[in-house]
Predict the structure.
Amino acid sequence: MSTQLLSTIVTFHAFELAWVWSIVVIILLLLCSALASGSETALFSLSPQQLESIRTRKSGTNRAIMKLLSDQDRLLATILIFNNLINILVISLCSNFIDKLMEFHNGGWEFAIKTIAVTFILLLFGEIIPKVYASYNPLGMSKIIALPLELLTRLFRPLSWVLEKYSDAIQNRGLVQHENISMEELENALEITENPSQTEKEMLSGIVQFASTEVEEIMHPRMEIRAIDQDEKFTEVKRIIIESGFSRIPVYDGNIDHIVGMLYVKDMLRHVGKGDEFEWQRYLRPAFYTPEHKKINELLEEFQTQKVHIAIVVDEYGSTLGLVSLEDILEEIVGEISDESDAPEEVLYKELSEGVYLFESKATIGLLEEVLELKEGTFDDARGEAETIAGLMLENKREFLKKGDKMTLHSIRLTVTKASGHKVEEIKVEKLQ
């Protein structure tokens, strides 16, 4: 644009020292706008680890952050009110300053220049820069604005209360719809999805079901736990370690219901040459316990915070029910995790003839339904709390099973073919015509 054309649009006035105060006020207001814009991004970008750190480290700033996040509707209303007030003042002062700095000869150009200049300044310094900074440093930004923002929530409480009530009224009238998608709907959506492979579908399905799975569904039952008596000699301890192949082994006092700690094999490596006089019990680490009905997503969080990889599952009376590891939890999402030290997968059944099978007693009811091609949940009316085929029979017989015991459920005949004391070992399953 030539100087001659520019002179026909606008005339610049000589700069006056008194205008410095206007510039200073505008800069301060832009800083306030930046803090308001960045505060929303920062506070809602805090990771779970950062929130846990804020919650555990007591300070005035941290308490203010937790208080602000405890009522997010009021927090958003306060930020909205404050940011809009500041922006209105910035627009007004910038327009006034431009009028002092230059005189327009055309109303259209005056509107265009003012709009472009003020919008550019507000977007760049009041929105883009602070939000980019806040997204990269949410914790630092949160600590900067926490105390001032807490003061503003008190100052604007009447206005924010009106906004909250108005928002609630809109939601109650059904103008804002919240769609609650059930787990079943998500699973159905995965079934009709064409692009993912079968492995991806299984993984996504595991994620969907992750929050609803309880510890007792994935734990290794009590009878499968390999544990060490705390009175064992070190030679026997080494033998058990070698035979089991586990890196962490529970240690009990008297019986497995009294776990006194966990033995980490890595702690024993430098003492492998020592004899029975070695006091290996001094190296026990505390055992971590979890109730049977805890959700595995909650247990995973506890594993992360407590820095442990294994937990003893107990019932309401404190008796040991089983054992669950970090690997068991991860396998619920990614499927079976195998390495070179894992034994080949155990076969829990074999076919004797058409429609006749021999199952290990610890085979699950789900496996029984799968092998016999029955509808999932066929035995739900008879299984009670049982998970295994032996448990299913015990649940319906209501007394200890012995060899030769039979029962028929849903046209399936179950016969105990091998038992040792009160423990059932094998069950013959026949699909009746």
